[in-house]
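Escalated from tier 1: thiamine diphosphate holo job.
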Amino acid sequence: MTKVAEKEAPAHIKHETLLELMRIMLLIRRFEEPCDKYYRAGKMGGYVHYYIGQEAIAAGLIPLMIPGDTMLASYRDHGHALALGTEPRKVMAELFGRATGAAGGKGGSMHIFDMARGFLGGYGIVGGSVPLSVGAAFALKYRGDKNICSTFFGDGAMQQGSVHEAMNMAGLYKVPCLFVLENNKYAMGTSVERHSSQTDFVKRVTNAYNIQGESVDGMDVLKVREVSERILKHMRETGEPYFLEALCYRYVGHGYADNAQQQKFYRTEEEIEAQRKRDPIDTFRHFLVSTGAATEKQIDDIDDDCKAIVADAIEFADNSPFPSPDSLYENVFTDM
Ligand SMILES: Cc1ncc(C[n+]2csc(CCOP(=O)(O)OP(=O)(O)O)c2C)c(N)n1
Ligand SMILES: [Mg+2]
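Tier 2 regenerated the structure:
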């Protein structure tokens, strides 16, 4: 196993925070692991995309959001909701399509929503949430709030025209939108090298749109936390947009059709194996134990808690009612 960082726990991060980062990553992973079984049993409709391997990004950044901030994500959105504090029961019930779900059971896995916490939704259209995010950030600026809007999307979304129109407007109007590109190296089965004329995304965005930007190792939760703290402070002071590319890796297939057999067409087992050695949870566990910040037992206890929370969420979801036909038009129109 590789080591992620130096041999000392960072003094400026509280001990509880270190454990909290571990808890969030474990919760996301334990939440998604059993989903395959329930999806294949026909318990979940629509589609389910996993965040497994990318947990350090949501865990490192999202807990830094404050009341009034807003957030949008792609269809790979369970991790973002869980990192924000959305109840696992509500997220799981949404996957099961039940009335107790985060979107009343009518959105499914790709459309987790938590208005109370500022999560304006996951979206199924690649890059579709990015223009909405710039609009949400514009609203914050228009009202004179010191809040920011963060938006999470993939490398494939970087080839969508609307994403670039939105970034241009963000750079022009200087709205507090944090663009978080989760570069997991693939858009379905197409590698970045095969879908992008310029693979240096920071260069592309900063040169074209007059937006500041940088890249971070998205497999290292402490690094994500560190850069996010600095970026958010800067954004709250200036109200300006920012582009953060988090380099990461998707351990599982894109979705259910993308099984191990299918993946052989676009990536090698050696590549997956090499990335597995950088697993954000394993490396952070090693870091916590080797620096004396936590014991194996403490981490195992957190892990057990997460497994129990997930088991409870599954039971809750499976025992919840489906939305009634009467609710079909609810949340579609709004009163003027
Ligand atoms: C506009 C649009 N085109 C195509 C699709 C089909 N599609 C779903 S996910 C995906 C790949 C997107 O890759 P990326 O943006 O890198 O995100 P990741 O899945 O890697 O998180 C595609 C092409 C879609 N949902 N929306
Ligand atoms: Mg991708």
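The CA atoms of residues 198 and 204 lie 7 Å apart.
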